[in-house]
Amino acid sequence: MTAYVIQRVALTLPVILLAVTLVFLAGHAVPDYAVRSIASGLTGSENLELAKQQVRHDLGLDKPLWTQYGQYLGGLFKGDLGDSYITKQPVLKELKTRMPVSVELGLLTVLVAFPLAVVFGVLSAIRQDTWLDYIVRFLSVLGLAIPSFFLGVILLIVVFKGFNWAPPLTTTAYRNLWVDPVQNLKQMALPAIAGGLALSAGMMRLLRSQLLEVLRQDFVRTAWAKGLRERTIIFRHILKNALIPVFTFAGLEVGILFSGEIVLEWMFSLPGMGVYTVMSMKQSDFPTVQGFVLVIATALVATNLLVDLTYGWLDPRVRYQ
Amino acid sequence: MDEPGYWKRLARRRLTRRRLLTGAAGVGAGLAAVSIVGCGGGGENAPAGTATGTPSATAGPEGADPFATLPAMGPRGPWQPAKARGGTARWFGYDALPLDTFDPHQTQFGPIYGMHSAVFSKVLMYDDIYDNRVVTDLAETMPETPDKLTYVIKLRHNVRFHDTEQIRKNFPNTAGRTLTAEDVKYSIERQINKASPKAALYYRASQWETLDKIELPDGPDALTLRITTKRPTAPLIHYLADTNAFIIAKELVDAESDDINSQDKMVGTGPFLLGKFVGLQVVRMARNPDWFAKDDLVDQGLSNRPILDGLEALWPPADDTSTEAAFRSKQVDFSGFVDSDNVARIAGEVGAENDRAITAGWVNTRMLLTDSDRAKAPFPDLRQRKALHLAIDRSRMGQQMFGTGYFVLCPPISLALKQWAYTPEDLVKKPGYRFGRQEREEDLLEAKRLWEAAGGPGLPQAEIVVAGIPDYLKNFAPQLERAVQETLGYNIKTRIDPTGYTELAQCALQKSCQAGLNYDNGWIDPDDWLYAYFYSTAPKNSFNLADPTLDRMLDDQRAEFDINKRRELVLGIQDYLLENVLVRLDWVAPSQPSVRWPYLGNRRMTPWFGDWYLYPPNLWIDTAHPTFQGRRV
Amino acid sequence: MASSGAAESRALVLERELLPPRISPWRLALRMGLRKPLGAFSAVIIVALFGAAIFASWPPLVSMNDAQPFLARYEAEDSFWVYNEATGIETALSKAPPSTAHWFGTDDQARDTWSRIIWGSRRSLRVGLGALALGTIVGVIIAFLSAYSRGLADLIIQRIMDAFQAFPPILFLILMVTITAPTENWLTVALAIISVPSVSRIVRSVIITTREMPYIEAARAIGASAPRIMVRHILPNVTAPIIIIFSIGVGVVILAEASLSFLGLGPPGISWGEMLNQGRLFVLTSPWQSIFSGLAITLAVLAFNLAGDALRDILDPRLRI
């Protein structure tokens, strides 16, 4: 087991490094809006070239690429992600305020999706080929196809026209969960539901197919023959086995979700990571982009790793491949 | 492009595209005022559409006063006495636009003038631009003018810079100190300092260059200034009251870079303190308890101003649904909408007020007249520019950008400036601004003729950069391409400025764009509308324009103190521009309503940016008003 | 003579008995369609999509400026105005509900929604098919390279693929588009890059499994060269998964492009995502644009997903893609 763990961990580090390098290279190949706009704020047209050189020098951009790369990596080890070109504040600071928002949205989305998926996946599997099954399957296929932002738009209209309810403003009045849970949940409700519905579709399908596979196996028939009640069979034997891949799926999705469900964040004006990364990209604020992408990539890879390890622990067959 | 078939095809296309439909034809729901289409078509609102949205396409009575559908513009009544104190007013606006710079003398971005005008004071200020009324702000009395070249200004005694713990920590020398004549002198002179690295960014340099000298007869720490101009300059009073004529503290300016480009340095003498500025999110202001003018309006029932504790300007949500939801739940006290039709509906449904005002800001296109070293002039021949001026349908543009009924046509000086602009009746007769069916056909034929004659069909493709903010501009870009293609058969390429305005601003400085389409701030004095753009050495002359006749006319209007004579001169300049220059094509201006809860008193719509000194100190929230129920404190 | 005639007729009889009866392709399609109704449904939608894209204009596939609109009825930037004879004023026919002149109503700039949806299908298909085609080719090449390199090179290539997959797709898209240029071609390239890791992973695993099969060993034993083995034996095995992944991939890519356009970051031109975004502005007055553009995206993604599912069932139900 230990060997397995070490091997998996060892493999992820180069991946993260690669991802960071990719972004680093991308950042330094770009038409430099940031440099230009900072420079033009410093002077009029005549001295623009001079000002741009000055700005580049100030930001350390005129050093050879290797040096900058080395410096950046060195900073990373010290926990320094650099300073934003635009706000001049440490990237870490902005990260700290925005990460909890995206993480919370991701977790809430899974929290919405999971019960839905389990309930309907189970129902669909044990009542295979009934009208219930067909409806659930249709809905899940639809859910996979429908964009979450379309769901969001529909939800917004329905909630507003039908119940005259509006989520509280989030542009400045965003409240963290521990500061004002009621307000926070009100603000997260619609995006979490929209994302959760979309997510549950995939999970439902997976759970259903896993359940059907398990249901066909011998030990189930044995339990059936023994006279155990349906419910016992499901909960004690089947669900456990069937849920493993579903956990995997959920885990992977959390990784993606928490990296910033950008579109939903943008639509509902949540101050999350994804939205901020996009904004920074547009402003060529590359320290911020690098820092955020680093965190996002790390989170994704770490979640994958965790899921792999958990899978290996839960399913011994995997370990000994 | 084969010549014989070309015009025939074009003509045929034009007519079929019109999709003639007369009479009632399912025009969209909520279409209230079909009457509006620009000046001269006015009339009262047509009967509002029924729930199924089928109003008939009729307009108001012919020949009605074109300003009837526009909000009344004129001297307002007195302010309403305060019914309660305290609270924070919140609204949606573009005030939190990410900035080019915080420096109040170097920024071009209109939305930020609001914050600046709340933080900084000016020597004089406009009370009402419709009738050009200038009153005192920092000055004790209106300047004495012993002769046409001299102005003696006496400042008030008790003007103190903002004083909070944070400011005391950052700038101990500024916090709470008294403003003196030296501050005024410095604020003006920095803008004409040619040695400054920021010289090119002082957009009002052309105003202050009219000054000969500023003297402090009683010494720097006293309160008297004597300003002498080089020549008789009629607009000088205006310069002292202009939107950006702020007085700042010298010691806050960074000596090396010559700017006060940081949030912390927004320390002035105005009614509000800057609490927080977060781009694309919020501008938060707090009340200044030591404002020197706090008791100026005691006789109108407003003592110890500002009445409110604070202001919050929030960046609008991505869509009208959220905006409406926020307004209905009283999370904001007033707001505009992307789709202005919503205002009347909401106001009717919840019992809110529907405020209208014409803005002095407008949508225009600026073009290079002659090649610069970074870009080629797209339409060097006047006839080509005239063709464009005539070909693009302003009425359509206005309707598509702002909605039917929510725009006005815009000549070189906005109609909001009654004193200086054409009357709507006159405007509507001018080619390009005529919108009747017959007249449009005539204008289009003329456009095609001019285009042909000037070698238009052979012109290489030009690029026009379109601002990315506000949305209606970039949404209009394909329609612009289409309009030019349809009417002149010319392919113009639009490119959206992804950063919003930054690129366009640089374009203007470096003359690196062939043409640009953007929303421009509105100004107050003809000097700002005309001199600052078209004078050969003016800072906003991004056209490479140098016309001696025009220069002379612009100088003449500056020297004319008789307001009626000056008006004649100004109209003459506009005529000249429309006939002979046309490097800045002026299209349309929004006239958009906003909806407001009645518990908020003393809100006045004004046409220009930078009005936070005017009504925000007088705002109050009546907690006893019936509509106040449910508002989160 | 008689004997050859008899031999011939015997051959004919054998032929008829041994070989399956020749069915016309139409009846074959019908049979398959009835067996897999969802697959048939998706095939219909896909054909409709292609039809819309191709026949939006007449002559088909020609760009908007040079052709007459056909299925689309109007040009994309045609605006509609109501003219009042008495006053001579033109009013925009904006936000109109569906009518005979405008099947899906009009938008805020008085343009016909139906025609814009039809024209918009071109973007979705161009980008979807282009990205998948490019991504599949590159993915297959990389998979072969990786599988045949074995050892360290294989590991490195796989880690690089992982690094690319560590990026949330939308962020990667935005980054690419910011670096290069916001045009459709670069978007297609970016989407192709996103598809490559999934394609290469699956193809690689198929290659590896196939390689271990006894008949490959046999082929090697009789002296078949590696390229010959690749082409004659492995490639056919790979075809089925590629088809399936292509189909599902197009759905994913269409969704990604719609998300990007929804954020307002897509290339200029008509896109369903951008229409959905615009439609939100006046959804309370006139929801038609939002509804129909959202439905268009959903249907397109749904069709390709269902087609992929059906193909998987037909080609190889054991495949767990």
Polypeptide structure, described:
The complex is a heterotrimer of chains A (about 325), B (about 625) and C (about 325). Helices cover about 80% and strands about 0% of the residues of chain A. Chain A has helices spanning about 1-30, 35-40, 50-60, 65-75, 90-125, 130-145, 150-165, 180-215, 220-225, 230-260, 260-265, 275-280, 285-315, 315-320. Chain A is globular. The mean pLDDT of chain A is about 75. In chain B, a hairpin with a 2-residue loop joins strand 5 (about 145) and strand 6 (about 150-155). The relative contact order of chain B is 0.16. In chain C, helix 3 packs across helix 4 and helix 4 (about 115-150) packs antiparallel against helix 9. Chains in contact: A-B, A-C, B-C. The interface between B and C is large, with 53 and 39 residues.
Compact summary:
The complex is a heterotrimer of chains A (about 325), B (about 625) and C (about 325). Chain A has about 325 residues and is mainly alpha-helical.
Label this structure with key terms.
heterotrimer; B: 633 residues; alpha+beta; 5-stranded mixed β-sheet; 4-stranded mixed β-sheet; 24 strands; globular; disordered N terminus; C: 321 residues; mainly alpha; two-stranded antiparallel ribbon; two-stranded antiparallel sheet; 11 helices
Strand-helix topology:
The complex is a heterotrimer of chains A (321), B (633) and C (321).
Chain A: H1 2-28, H2 33-42, H3 48-58, H4 65-77, H5 91-126, H6 131-145, H7 148-163, H8 181-215, H9 218-226, H10 230-258, H11 262-267, H12 273-282, H13 286-314, H14 316-319
Chain B: H1 3-17, E1 88-92, H2 112-119, E2 121-122, E3 124-128, E4 133-136, E5 144-147, E6 150-154, H3 165-170, H4 181-189, H5 205-208, E7 211-215, E8 224-229, H6 236-241, E9 246-247, E10 272-278, E11 282-287, E12 310-314, H7 320-328, E13 334-335, H8 341-350, E14 353-356, E15 362-367, H9 382-391, H10 394-402, E16 407-409, H11 424-427, H12 437-453, E17 462-466, H13 471-488, E18 492-496, H14 502-510, E19 515-520, H15 526-534, H16 548-559, H17 563-581, E20 584-586, E21 588-590, E22 593-596, E23 600-601, E24 620-621
Parallel strand pairs in B: 1-12, 17-18, 17-19
Antiparallel strand pairs in B: 2-9, 3-4, 5-6, 6-8, 7-8, 10-11, 11-12, 13-22, 14-22, 15-19, 15-20, 16-21, 23-24
Chain C: H1 2-18, H2 25-35, H3 37-55, E1 57-58, E2 68-69, E3 81-84, E4 89-92, H4 113-149, H5 151-165, H6 169-179, H7 184-211, H8 214-221, H9 226-262, H10 272-281, H11 288-315
Antiparallel strand pairs in C: 1-2, 3-4
